[in-house]
């Protein structure tokens, strides 16, 4: 589709590429379909790769449990109690791994779908926001993985010595997945706060005055989103989130000041 517009000064006509306002609802739906297909294809390719890398991924994920048992990865085992559990675990690891590998493609497709509707001053923040979101999510997930061993120590010791610890693969991998997801989402906290400040929804001064409430709110949110619920994990995630809160105030103040000067 080509939009034809008349110049105000004469009869000559110029042709321009269609903008968001020139596209119909069907055009937007068609573009959304294409973005979803490309995203699904990227996740599928990533899942196939992770399917063949399953033995290596399994050894990496089971390492915290092996450290808890004081054994090498080759010598410790998870307890399988159902015949289809092994196949289900491999499918889940391949699926989650495919999403993780395809995350840059997914963020790029979201960016390409949203960018036509943004103003020029909003577009220039897209790359920093998308890149920062990806980096922070990876950092959060990595921190969660390294936090898992002390969290497991607390969870296994809190029940006393009368319990023999041997984990089943499904609950164990669900705990790892939810922990990494919770930390990854928690590390997106500064991105949200900076965006809200740039959008004018909140201000740096209002964030400063709400520090006391922010501390309580962060602790409550972390207690809700972390599946283990142990105090070690609570502190490990709450402290970075509060630091991010202070950093977002500083970044929002600087960016807003520069925007006002322009």
How would you describe this protein?
This protein has 262 residues and is mainly alpha-helical. It has 2 domains: 25-117, no CATH class; 123-262, no CATH class. 72% of the residues lie in helices and 3% in strands. A two-stranded antiparallel ribbon has the order 1-2. α10 (211-225) crosses α11 (231-261). The radius of gyration is 24 Å and the shape is flat. The chain starts with a strand and ends with a helix.
Task: Give a concise summary.
The chain has 262 residues and is mainly α.
User: What is the typical, i.e. mean, pLDDT?
Assistant: 80
> What is the helix tally?
11
Structural class: mainly alpha
**Could you describe the largest sheet, including whether it forms a barrel?**
2 strands, antiparallel
Low-confidence stretches: 1-17
**Helix/strand order, N-terminal first:** EEHHHHHHHHHHH
| Number of strand segments | 2
Radius of gyration: 24 Å
In percent, how helical is the residue content? over 70%
For this structure, the quaternary state is single chain
List the helices and strands and how they pair.
Layout: E1 3-6, E2 13-16, H1 25-52, H2 54-69, H3 85-101, H4 103-114, H5 120-123, H6 126-157, H7 169-186, H8 189-198, H9 204-209, H10 211-225, H11 231-261
Antiparallel strand pairs: 1-2
Helix pairs in contact: 1-3, 1-4, 2-6, 3-7, 6-7, 6-11, 8-11, 10-11
Features:
two-stranded antiparallel ribbon; 11 helices; 262 residues; flat; mainly alpha; 2 strands
């Amino acid at each position: 589709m080509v939009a034809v517009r008349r110049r105000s000064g004469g009869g000559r006509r110029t042709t321009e590429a269609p903008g968001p306002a020139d596209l119909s609802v069907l055009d937007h739906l068609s573009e959304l379909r294409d973005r979803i297909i490309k995203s699904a294809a990227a996740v599928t390719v990533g899942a196939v790769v992770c399917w063949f890398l399953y033995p290596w991924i399994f050894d990496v994920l089971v390492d915290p449990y092996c450290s808890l048992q004081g054994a090498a990865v080759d010598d410790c085992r998870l307890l399988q109690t159902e015949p289809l559990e092994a196949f289900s675990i491999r499918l889940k690891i391949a699926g989650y791994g495919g999403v993780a590998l395809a995350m840059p493609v997914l963020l790029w497709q979201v960016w390409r779908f949203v960018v036509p509707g943004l103003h020029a001053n909003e577009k220039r923040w897209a790359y920093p926001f998308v890149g920062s979101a990806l980096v922070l999510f990876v950092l959060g997930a990595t921190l969660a993985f390294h936090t898992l061993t002390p969290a497991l120590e607390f969870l296994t010791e809190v029940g006393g010595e009368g319990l023999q610890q041997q984990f089943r693969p499904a609950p164990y991998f669900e705990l790892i997945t939810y922990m990494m997801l919770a930390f990854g989402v928690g590390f997106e906290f500064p991105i949200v706060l900076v965006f809200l400040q740039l959008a004018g929804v909140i201000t740096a001064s209002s964030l400063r005055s709400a520090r006391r409430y922010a501390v309580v709110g962060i602790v409550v949110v972390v207690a809700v989103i972390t599946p283990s619920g142990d105090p070690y994990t609570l502190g490990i995630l709450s402290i970075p989130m509060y630091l991010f809160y202070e950093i977002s105030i500083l970044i929002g103040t600087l960016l807003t000041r520069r925007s006002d000067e322009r």
